[in-house]
Amino acid sequence: MAGGAASAERSQLEPISVSSPRVRDGGPLPSDYSCKGSAGNPPLRWSRVPDGTKSVAIVVDNNARYGGEVNWVVFDIDPRTNELAEGSVPVGAVEGGTTAGKVGYSPPCNTQENYRFTVYALDAKVGLDKGASLDKTLKSIAGKTIAWGRLTAAHIE
């Protein structure tokens, strides 16, 4: 399938619904999940993952005006999984490297930035090792995405 056809097909998909019992879309990120806290990642829930999904990935980043930062990448999540507990990684999932080169959730620190929690439905596993480079991981996720959804925290509380 040509890239343009794939893009047109993907844009017609229903978005994945992403929510959290601790973070309201457009609301602040509780400081527990920032570098001021110790809770790790916030809990997330998602639904409306399309049929044919072979794995799920989550990317946490900010959309800073002067270059974004990726705070967490977790991939190869079982497609039957529909939630992520606070401070945890689903069984069998793999964490890639962040912008800082660390593996795992790197709590955000910039209180004025928006932080995005994006859930991707993929048509195949990413298939990379733990700590894989951010560039490689994001390219693999982008090439396999069939649907996505996002929860955005407007700033850190």
UniProtKB/TrEMBL annotation:
<protein>
    <recommendedName>
        <fullName>YbhB/YbcL family Raf kinase inhibitor-like protein</fullName>
    </recommendedName>
</protein>
<dbReference type="InterPro" id="IPR008914">
    <property type="entry name" value="PEBP"/>
</dbReference>
<dbReference type="Pfam" id="PF01161">
    <property type="entry name" value="PBP"/>
</dbReference>
<dbReference type="InterPro" id="IPR036610">
    <property type="entry name" value="PEBP-like_sf"/>
</dbReference>
<dbReference type="InterPro" id="IPR005247">
    <property type="entry name" value="YbhB_YbcL/LppC-like"/>
</dbReference>
<comment type="similarity">
    <text>Belongs to the UPF0098 family.</text>
</comment>
<feature type="region of interest" description="Disordered">
    <location>
        <begin position="1"/>
        <end position="47"/>
    </location>
</feature>
